[in-house]
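Retro notes (design track)

What went well: tokenization of the new backbones is finally stable.
What didn't: we kept losing track of which sequence belonged to which structure.
Fix going forward: every design gets posted as structure first, then sequence, in one message. First example under the new rule, 139 residues:
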């Protein structure tokens, strides 16, 4: 007679330590790829002014046009050509005749681009222009 020795099979188990390692890698990947702080799309070095006014709450928010150091136009942080800018200014005046144009030009922006923007505002019949500046450094 032959007796067979039956070996007991152990039940399959899930190795939790390996799953935790994978989970930690996923969490680290998500933390590295997630943006926590909004960065400005355009970095400008504003000119200084001793008469700079603080921006406050306004019933009529201005249309902000930025001019970069290379002379490129940005409308609400979106790059635009001069023709697109003219069209947008005309549309803003059609929507609100009392619109205010805020010029946010870099300190090194070409003066010709600022004059060109001012002429486009005059052609669109914008009566109020504002220029952004920063406070003068205190000695």
């Amino acid at each position: 007679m032959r007796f067979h020795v039956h070996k007991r099979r152990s039940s399959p188990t899930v190795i939790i330590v390996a799953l935790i390692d994978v989970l930690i890698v996923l969490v680290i990947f998500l933390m590295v790829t997630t943006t926590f702080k909004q960065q400005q799309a355009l970095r400008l070095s504003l000119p200084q002014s001793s008469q700079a006014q603080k921006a406050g709450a306004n019933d009529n928010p201005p249309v902000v046009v930025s001019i970069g150091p290379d002379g490129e136009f940005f409308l609400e942080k979106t790059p635009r050509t001069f023709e697109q800018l003219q069209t947008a200014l005309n549309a803003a005046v059609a929507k609100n005749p009392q619109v205010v144009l805020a010029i946010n030009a870099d300190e090194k922006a070409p003066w010709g681009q600022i004059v060109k923007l001012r002429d486009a505002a005059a052609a669109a019949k914008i009566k109020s222009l504002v220029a952004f500046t920063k406070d003068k450094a205190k000695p």
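Added context from the reviewer: Helices lie at 16-33, 82-95, 111-123.
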